[in-house]
């Protein structure tokens, strides 16, 4: 199968890879460890929000009917019963002709049905027993009613959502000190290739340092997985299989880089031919990374990416990360294509869709995709600047500047930063 | 100054807040702890990349001149000297009429000046001493020349960049097992307000649970700071000042939520009047969060945000996070405005620019901003879904659906996820 391979589209490959995954398991974490985790269950409001009628501003709680006809020139005078700070329980009930000084967020006193802001009142002194109201109010004005944002029992966050700062605020509000999240998948990480040196090794003739492992580890962690670095693979297939069997017991998923092509030592390519290994695919209609391979062995998925850094980076975003996100329980696991105008002509012909690293910019609300200055897919020095993949469709023409192309954003566009 | 405040624009406020910051300090971290950190120095290539002339594919290293005239029908036969795997140092020099079998990434043998891929050759058996070349090559074809991507000494990553997966690949390639990064700023975190309960406390009449602290902590951590939760503030100003003095010794920056308005217990507002406190601003032309305040005390900046969850969230993105990113040494610290078409009319008048939480979508390359279904700024249950702030300019008209508005993206748009 090393040379005779069946080519499938990126979309088909993703579909095959993500089908029939195991249901992720749940665990509880403290809310202070929950940022970035995926909710395992829907979260419900444990109380009304607001939990009581309250004032949204600093001013005076009044009976609207007492303010009828009040103007700047003819203010209405009310007797101030008390000052209600946020957190207080009001002691007194408003009766006709009375008001209570009230602070933002404080509970509304009995009898009050409106709040007037300080700036529309006049008080002889700050602690005076009299206040002059300079405007008439209608019942219900400037009130936050109990439950008006969310009534008790409502779903306020959904299973499969990634917990962000906003989610944490919701969880805190409803007292979720412990949060039900999905257990993080353990992703075994393995680089093949006798040319690879460790990062701290000095250079040797013919060798290069392993850059894919740490790159993949960072992407896996960002996607919600736990990267588990594993020792390199031996050369012979039976030893490879024995080692993989051991590795696979400890992880939910294995990703490898290198060894997927037609070279003599491309061990992942040979592995696909073994009878107890299920080949999902080993040739995808894409450049770079055509020989990207996926297998099932010992009931675990193996995502075998190209060793070429650019192809490995692309393959990770197209295949590995959606898989990691799915195993993490994330509802939206797949990268979605949007459209943008191509900023500069790319006319290199290609039999398959070509994924160019680059960036999106914006002009008068229009998205523009700019490919990297250097189109060599193997180049790794521009990889840190990639924020999107622009897709040049197959065929001899490429795409002209100004044409719409499909784009796969993979990182927050830097259009949003300056200074 | 509690009532008489000078209003400045968001842009002016940010500029004042970020001016004359201390130079961030440097520290070394191991590369496996470097993801997300900010580079403290430019990083240079410690070797050429590629470090040697190498083959970009699996095939045969040849002398191009030996292949002159070769076609599918009239192949040229060459003697195979050896097989060069990636990581090998070739043992033999090509002489006229010879070739070496070579794998992707392997060092080119002496004498070779081109590589032909397996698919364009024919070998009687895989380990045969003869190969038939079915195409003529030109010198330099299918070679990666030493240093062609990056020559030794080039700058490959810049001070002030946030280290991402691509940066890690570059650092690994050039052997940076230790990475010079900027020390993370410590950000003290303090919520004022007697109405606040801890997350694990049961509800009490008049009280709400503190949701701003954990929200701010998550945003600070994401921006590269270390959130340092501090005890709540007492009620009296002298005690407040003494406590702040202590807190400020241990942090680079303090953020508070609540107590900035005109209420009787708005301690941050009173603090601004103290002679040893420098007021940077206490009224910003924005909704929500007009009374957002910034001070300098004990030579440290205090970012005093509104206690209203929506205003606190907005103020954090507009003021606190740029400050945290600047103190983290990040080159691009400020949120930048882009343009998008407003998806639905918003005609509520406002004397100041109004920042609506919402999302960006894309249609044929055009960006569209959709405000939250619920425009109440104080609502916190929709905060987790906010990805951008849409800005409705001041004045009585608001903006109609279809008009261009300014947008401040603050999170990766979810247009990029499906499935």
From TrEMBL, chains A, B:
Residues 188-326 form the MoaB/Mog domain. Pathway: Cofactor biosynthesis; molybdopterin biosynthesis. Gene3D superfamilies: MoaB/Mog-like domain, MoeA, C-terminal, domain IV, Molybdopterin biosynthesis moea protein, domain 2, Molybdopterin biosynthesis moea protein, domain 3. Its EC number is 2.10.1.1. Keywords: Magnesium, Metal-binding, Molybdenum, Molybdenum cofactor biosynthesis, Transferase. It catalyses: adenylyl-molybdopterin + molybdate = Mo-molybdopterin + AMP + H(+). It comes from the Bacteria. Its cofactor is Mg(2+). Belongs to the MoeA family. Catalyzes the insertion of molybdate into adenylated molybdopterin with the concomitant release of AMP. This is Molybdopterin molybdenumtransferase. It comes from Brevibacillus ruminantium.
């Amino acid at each position: 199968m090393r040379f005779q391979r069946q080519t499938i589209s990126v979309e088909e490959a993703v579909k095959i890879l993500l089908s029939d995954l195991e249901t992720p398991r749940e665990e509880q974490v403290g809310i202070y460890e929950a940022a970035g985790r995926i909710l395992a269950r829907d979260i419900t409001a444990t109380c009304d929000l607001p939990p009581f009628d309250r004032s949204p501003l600093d001013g005076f709680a009044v009976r609207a009917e007492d303010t009828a006809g009040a103007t700047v020139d003819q203010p209405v005078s009310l007797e101030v019963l008390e000052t209600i700070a946020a957190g207080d329980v009001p002691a007194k009930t408003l009766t006709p002709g009375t008001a209570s000084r009230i602070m933002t967020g404080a509970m509304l006193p009995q009898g009050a049905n409106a709040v007037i802001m300080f700036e529309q009142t006049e008080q002889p002194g700050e602690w005076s027993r009299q206040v002059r109201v300079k405007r008439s109010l209608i019942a219900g004005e400037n009130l936050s009613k109990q439950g008006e944002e969310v009534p008790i029992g409502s779903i306020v966050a959904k299973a499969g959502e990634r917990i962000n700062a906003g989610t944490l605020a919701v969880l805190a509000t409803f007292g979720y000190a412990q949060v039900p999240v999905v257990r993080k998948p353990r992703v075994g990480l393995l680089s093949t290739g006798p040319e690879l040196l460790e990062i701290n090794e000095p250079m040797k003739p013919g060798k290069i340092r392993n850059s894919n492992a740490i790159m993949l580890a960072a992407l896996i962690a960002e996607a919600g997985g736990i990267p588990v670095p594993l020792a390199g693979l031996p050369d012979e297939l039976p030893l490879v299989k024995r080692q993989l069997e051991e590795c696979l017991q400890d992880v939910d998923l294995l990703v490898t880089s290198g060894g997927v092509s037609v070279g003599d030592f491309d061990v992942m390519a040979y592995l696909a031919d073994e009878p107890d290994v299920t080949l999902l695919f080993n040739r995808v209609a894409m450049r770079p990374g055509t020989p990207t391979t996926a297998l099932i062995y010992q009931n675990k998925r193996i995502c075998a990416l190209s060793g070429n850094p650019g192809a490995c980076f692309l393959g990770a975003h197209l295949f590995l990360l959606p898989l990691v996100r799915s195993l993490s329980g994330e509802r939206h696991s797949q990268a979605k294509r949007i459209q943008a105008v191509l900023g500069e002509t790319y006319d290199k012909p290609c039999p398959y869709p070509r994924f160019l690293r680059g960036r999106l910019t914006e002009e008068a609300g229009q998205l523009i995709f700019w490919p990297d200055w250097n189109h060599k897919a193997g180049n790794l020095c521009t990889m840190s600047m990639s924020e999107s993949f622009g897709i040049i469709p197959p065929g001899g023409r490429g795409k002209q500047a100004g044409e719409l192309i499909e784009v796969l954003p993979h990182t927050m566009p830097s259009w949003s930063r300056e200074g």
